Amino acid sequence: MKLSEMKQILASGQIQLTKSLGQNFLHDQNQLRRIADAAELTKTDKVLEIGPGLGPLTELLVERAGEVLAIEKDQRLFDFLLQRFAGSHSLKLLHDDALDYVRREQRDWSDWKLVANLPYSVASPILVELAQSPGCPERLVVTLQLEVANRIVAQADDDDYGVLSLLIQLYYEPKGLLKIPADCFFPAPDVDSACVVLVRRPQPLLSPELSVAFARLVKLSLSQRRKMMLKLLKQNWPVEKLTAAFEQLQLSPQIRAEKVTLEQFVKLTQLLHS
């Protein structure tokens, strides 16, 4: 779908954009191909797309994958997509709130790939929800605000490193970040964007039970970034156990959580729950 077609559809009055849904449609064909290429799709792949909009990325996904499930919240866009892809047998369209759907369904996504230009307002919770699901997708190729993308791929001691970095990277390894200029969207958003490529880890770093404990530990440790991590954790664990764990990991009692690596958080979780 070219920009001229997109403008014509929107100008016809058939569809009016809703600002609260963050409807900025990616139209640049080169960027769309880069996203599809990053997904490394074959005809055996099953793809989840969230927020297909007018369907420019959907078109590429249907061409390359064996099965596509696209979830669209806006009724007008959903109706448009039903007409546009009426002849496609490999595409299933759902009219639903994607965040509600992934929370409600609790399905096994382990043999799926998520490829989407995510609605910016709900991108982070959707990614965390899918990452923490019992069977998380094997690959995530998602377009987000550049600020959020930087937080997802950040490493310890980076300015953007935080809870989101750790909750996603517990399950996924960042494999790339493709910046996308604002003028590649219509209408152009007020922020820059990026496509992040994340590949599921071959082996889980923690069991499901300890993954829940990891999330609690990380959120408490980073709840007040300027405070020493040890002081924050004393709210939930005996000081003797914390001191022994910090010594074993060679963590300074004065260290702040933003300097603690994913691997150290994983080991600390194991030590505190042994």
Question: Major sheet, described briefly?
Answer: 7 strands, mixed
- Please state roughly what percent of the residues sit in beta strands, choosing from under 5%, 5-15%, 15-25%, 25-35%, 35-45% or over 45%: 15-25%
Shape: elongated
CATH architecture of the largest domain: 3-Layer(aba) Sandwich
Q: What is the domain tally?
A: 2
Q: What is the residue-averaged pLDDT?
A: 94
By helix and strand content, what is the structural category? alpha/beta
Contiguous low-pLDDT stretches (5 residues minimum) are none
Order of helices and strands: HEHEHEHEHEHEHHEEEHHHH
Write the layout of secondary structure elements.
Elements: H1 3-11, E1 25-26, H2 29-38, E2 46-50, H3 56-64, E3 67-72, H4 75-84, E4 91-95, H5 98-105, E5 112-117, H6 123-131, E6 139-145, H7 146-153, H8 163-169, E7 172-180, E8 185-186, E9 193-200, H9 208-221, H10 229-233, H11 239-248, H12 262-272
Parallel strand pairs: 2-3, 2-5, 3-4, 5-6
Antiparallel strand pairs: 1-8, 6-9, 7-9
Helix pairs in contact: 2-3, 5-6, 9-12
